[in-house]
């Protein structure tokens, strides 16, 4: 019954969660640890806030470029030559590109197996299958924590290649190993891949009240035994947690247990608090004010992403229309920047400059495109992103980043392909995904005290 219950990757639960994973869950929350926070294993104490912001912005640009290099349409990438997975027959086929796992800005803590082994993973709404690196592994990126050894877990089981979970992987991204275990392939960019076997094991979170852990047995995940990346991955990141719309993602596999709903609340960059990921309904919470909702769209060429339809952007009294329908912008939890398709960006930034009536700074640091100095003397116009059925009003802190030398830079940059609504624009909003109703809702919230 619970073959498809994926890892509940959690650091702290709220009191309404039941310990037994076989029961219906009312709702629970998970700490989202900002990667630049002292609480994060990726924290770099030698970098000041400006350096941290610039580093995050560069990761945002790299992710955007990786998704759709040279593409301005919703189409699958060209097939790339792929190495044969160890201990399996060769499968060289077209594969949908997914984001770089190291380019996440939030991490989640969890334990895997029996006995429990603690892991850190990147939180990502643009991926489905969650995975960690496993032993033995001849080709893996270096990580500080020991590789997960499934043979040391009394609750681990290989997923068979003729099982239903294996058939949920696209045919051109799965294979059958010598022992009839299900082999999956995940591609990142043109020549970067990870290959592994599907497994099921117990995921544990807690402790909760009275020292108890929440345990979810037979959770399906990827056990990677081959990782060949052309980009750098931090040795502190043990894997990735997928919250996309596909069948292997965390919310999809929990399904009825969480009412097919999840939400997150991201904190400002300077906050000392953690963000929160909530799964399920929270009946004890008061009704939220100012909630707006818009449909999300799944494009078969981009099955791991939630697409919204952006009708236009208002900058004070000016409005830039996209003239597009059917899903033209990805909502993404990973990049801090919002990336607009070239034509839309050109019209947008022209209206911004006219609304501000100031000269742009000539020394805008890479990768920012529009910066101004002495912001204390400026009047900020209201920015509204007009999604179908939902006007999301952003404040200046969602649109600008403060840097050294009394410089502020806009968090919106041109995209090499499809537009992306980044996480800086989502700060201090509870963003809820309703997979049953196929909609995304935005509610203004103080996420630091959420």
From TrEMBL:
Peptidase A1 domain mapped to chain residues: 106-443
Homology family: Belongs to the peptidase A1 family.
Major localisation: secreted
Intracellular or extracellular location(s): Secreted
PANTHER family: ASPARTIC PROTEINASE CDR1-LIKE (PTHR47967:SF128), OS07G0603500 PROTEIN-RELATED (PTHR47967)
Region described as Disordered: spans on this chain: 74-96
Keyword Nucleotide-binding: no
Descriptive protein name: Peptidase A1 domain-containing protein
Keywords tagged on the record: Aspartyl protease, Glycoprotein, Hydrolase, Protease, Secreted, Signal
Alphabetized InterPro entries for the sequence: Aspartic_peptidase_AS, Pepsin-like_plant, PEPTIDASE_A1, Peptidase_aspartic_dom_sf, Plant_Aspart_Prot_A1, TAXi_C, TAXi_N
Signal peptide start-end: 1-21
PROSITE patterns: ASP_PROTEASE, PEPTIDASE_A1
